[in-house]
Automatic annotation (TrEMBL):
Residues 8-330 form the D-isomer specific 2-hydroxyacid dehydrogenase catalytic domain. This is 2-hydroxyacid dehydrogenase. Its EC number is 1.1.1.28. Keywords: NAD, Oxidoreductase. It comes from Roseibium aestuarii. Residues 112-299 form the D-isomer specific 2-hydroxyacid dehydrogenase NAD-binding domain. Belongs to the D-isomer specific 2-hydroxyacid dehydrogenase family.
């Protein structure tokens, strides 16, 4: 059974090849560097399934091309499926699978890494010490202990993050249309989103990108935040309106910003662009703030997560080969 795997890097090839060893039916993995999109979909001609990642284009025209070639499965190597036109996939009878919970610890711990690095100015301290500058001015942080942290979205990742923050001695509040009872029992208080914004010293976004959460952090939300609050986004870039946070950073309303995802990241992330000019002025502006720390969508990037992503992806493909339904089907 042939599967064309798009947007692959050496680490994807390594982990997927290992996970596919001994698979039944045997899998022929055809790896492409290229991103899946209208001009590359034809590469998958002859395949039974395609395997794609967060910045691949699975809009209706691309799904149409895949269905025309007889492809029956889109196996996402991600938890989020916001880049797949699910209604169109349903119409075409194309099955979509995802990796629901490969390692919530990977992403939650990365969110904590951003919080701690921004708070204690590790990104600046690292450079100073390397230059023999041991002055502390400008590096003052705050104790996380006793501060109020807000987790927006307490799914698999948000729950892990909430518990880590409880461990730091934070007061943890959360917003989610479906409050989690175990978290409430552990001491997390659910609040309406607006109320959460006004109370938190640190706000972290762990919700999926949906039509409802697109630009959840807009100018109104920024204005509703506690002045000087830290905002962390490891969910999807478009949950945050970049213009609104730039304005919030300029006015000081946002005290620090940590991003692992960015609205226009598909033009930038996962590639080495260090010899090129970055044409994105918003991204360039964000980089000028000393209190902004950006990583290039690496929250998922741990050994454990890559192992689990590869294993579940292979399981989704082999179960689809078996009875036509992938194990982790997205309805
Ligand atoms: P999940 O599906 O387990 O949890 C999402 C939670 O968000 C659910 O409890 C849902 O009820 C809640 N939610 C939905 N709309 C909301 C709203 N308007 N306000 C507050 N909460 C809302 O998803 P999981 O596994 O926890 O992942 C969350 C997101 O993190 C993914 O959708 C993905 O976009 C992102 N992600 C980022 C990664 C990275 O490398 N930076 C890696 C993996 C996931």
């Amino acid at each position: 059974m042939r599967i064309d795997v798009f947007s692959t890097k050496p680490y994807d090839r390594e982990f997927l090849t290992r996970a596919a060893e001994g698979a039944e039916p045997p899998l022929e993995l055809v790896f492409h560097d290229a991103r899946l999109g209208p001009s590359t979909a034809m590469l998958a001609n002859g395949a039974t399934a395609v395997c794609a990642f967060v910045n691949d284009d699975l809009s209706a025209p691309v799904l149409d091309l895949l269905a025309d070639m007889g492809i029956g499965l889109v196996a996402m190597r991600s938890a989020g499926v916001n880049n797949v036109d699910l209604p169109r996939a349903r119409e075409l009878g194309l099955k979509v699978a995802r990796v629901p919970a490969y390692s919530p610890h990977a992403v939650a711990e990365h969110a904590v890494a951003l919080i701690l690095a921004l708070n204690r100015k590790i990104h600046r301290a690292y450079n100073r010490v390397r230059e023999g500058n041991f002055a502390l001015d400008g590096l003052m942080g705050f104790d996380l202990h006793g501060k109020t942290a807000g987790v927006v979205g307490t799914g698999v990742i948000g729950q892990v993050l909430a518990r880590i923050l409880l461990g730091f001695g934070c007061k943890v509040v959360a917003s989610d249309p479906y409050p989690n009872e175990a978290l409430q029992a552990a001491g997390v208080t659910y609040l309406p989103f607006e109320a959460l914004l006004g109370q938190c010293d640190v706000i972290t976004l762990q919700c999926p990108l949906t039509p409802e959460t697109r630009h959840l952090i807009d100018a109104r939300a920024v204005a509703a935040m506690k002045p000087g609050a830290m905002l962390i986004n490891t969910s999807r870039g478009a949950v945050v309106d970049t213009d609104a946070v730039i304005a919030g950073l300029k006015s000081g309303q946002i005290g620090a910003l940590g991003l692992d995802v960015y609205e226009e990241e598909s033009d930038l992330f996962f590639e080495d662009l260090s010899n090129r000019i970055i044409p994105d002025d918003h991204f360039a502006r964000l980089q000028t703030f000393p209190n902004v720390l950006i990583t290039g969508h690496q929250g998922f990037f741990t050994r454990e997560a890559l192992t689990a992503i590869a294993r579940t992806t292979v399981e989704n493909i082999t179960s689809f080969a078996g009875d036509g339904t992938p194990a982790n089907r997205v309805e």
